[in-house]
Amino acid sequence: MDLALIWAGIIAFAVLVYVMLDGFDLGVGMLFLGLNSKQKDRAITSIAPIWDGNETWLVLGGGGLFAVFPLAYATILPALYAPVIAMLLALIFRGVSMEYRHKTVRWHEFWNLGFFVGSSVASFSQGIMLGAFIQGIDIQDRQYAGGWFDWLTPFSIACGVAVVLGYRLLGAAWILMKTRGELAVQMRQRLPGIAAAAVVAIVVISSWTGLVNERLTERWFSWPNFLWLAPIPLLVAVTTIGLWRAIRSGGDAAPFVWALALFGVTFAGFGISTYPYIVPGSLTIWEAAAPDVSLSFLLVGSAFLLPLILAYTGHTYWVFRGKVEDHEVGYD
Predict the structure, then answer these.
(1) Is residue 332 part of a domain?
(2) Which residues contact 84 (CB under 8 A, 6 or more apart)?
(3) Beta-carbon count within 10 A of 82 CB
(4) In terms of Cα–Cα distance, which of 130, 22, 4 is closest to 76?
(5) Bridge partners for 283 per DSSP
(6) How far apart are the first and last CA of the chain?
(7) For 8, 26, 222, 231, which has the most beta carbons within 10 A of its beta carbon?
(8) pLDDT for 64-108, tens place per residue?
């Protein structure tokens, strides 16, 4: 078996699930300032049972990278120290804000703002990391050779904005699916604009990517690659149309499903763009992998751990399925 490739697939799956699941509860936080007090309570209640479980996948992805691709971890992390630290601090501050906003009166609005700021900074930092990763990391002699601020470029900032817009789409669709009344009506009214902004961001970043990384341009537009990879942009177009029709149809769950599908297709395009590199243009999956003995040992453990995580995640979503009702509003 190609253990390195199997592990690359596992980590990619963990990252995708994290982006989809934590993406919508970060999106809820970024929509917070446009809601009144009662609506904020409803929005928080919709994610209260599952938000911390969603972040399990971030731990799995980061821990898996450290254990399975140590060379990639040792070169990526020094290149992205600042946005990684910003993301982690923002996630902590966000979690604290969720707890404290229900325990204080004097500081209630401060912690509401903290929830918004924490969600926004975490999302923007993730986009910054994505942009820096796509444009490439300077590696010499198997070590990071760049500077402290190499991650800060117009492209990485644009990617940060794109991730914020994408997560807002997931968050709005989630609130629509999980709530009733004026909050659901407000999200339905705002969704077309939010969705349009997210799709425009995807198009802009996809087009810009070819300018910052010539290798990706060659991969997507050389012959016969252009023929084989054409289904990806077509699928993006199909999911965009599906999302727009779902929003216009008046359904509650369909927009969220189509938004997840849009994220899945764009993630597939990202994977195709970077393969076989785990650090674009510098380290392949096999060059960065740990010895096969370590990969085999860890794979046995993951064979038990991954189904367990999937099971309790699925169980949690099943138990807390359905709409948030008035008597359920609260976070204790």
Answers:
(1) no
(2) 77, 125, 129
(3) 16
(4) 130
(5) 279
(6) 48
(7) 26
(8) 888 899 888 888 888 899 999 999 999 999 989 988 888 877 888
Rounded to an integer, what distance in angstroms lies between the CA atom of residue 253 and that of residue 284? Answer: 39
277 belongs to a structural domain = yes
- 328 assigned to some structural domain: no
| DSSP string across 226-295 | HHHHTHHHHHHHHHHHHHHHHHHHT-SSHHHHHHHHHHHHHHHHHHHHHTTEEETTTEEHHHHPPPHHHH
What confidence tens digit (pLDDT) does each residue in 259-276 have? 999 999 999 888 888 888
81 and 128 Cβ atoms separated by less than 8 Å? no
Task: Look up the domain containing 258 and give its range.
Answer: 3-321
Burial label for 249, CB within 10 Å (0-12, 13-18, 19+), is exposed
What integer pLDDT is reported at residue 128 of this predicted model? 95
In a domain, 181, yes or no: yes
**pLDDT tens digits, residue range 278-326?**
887 778 899 889 898 989 998 998 889 899 989 989 998 999 888 887 6
Beta carbons of 22 and 55 less than 8 angstroms apart? yes
Q: What is the pLDDT of residue 30?
A: 94
Rounded-to-integer distance, Cα 226 and Cα 199, Å: 22
Residue 284 β-bridge partners: 277
Structure tokens belonging to residue 156: 């990485």
Decide: 135 and 212 in contact? Cβ < 8 Å. yes
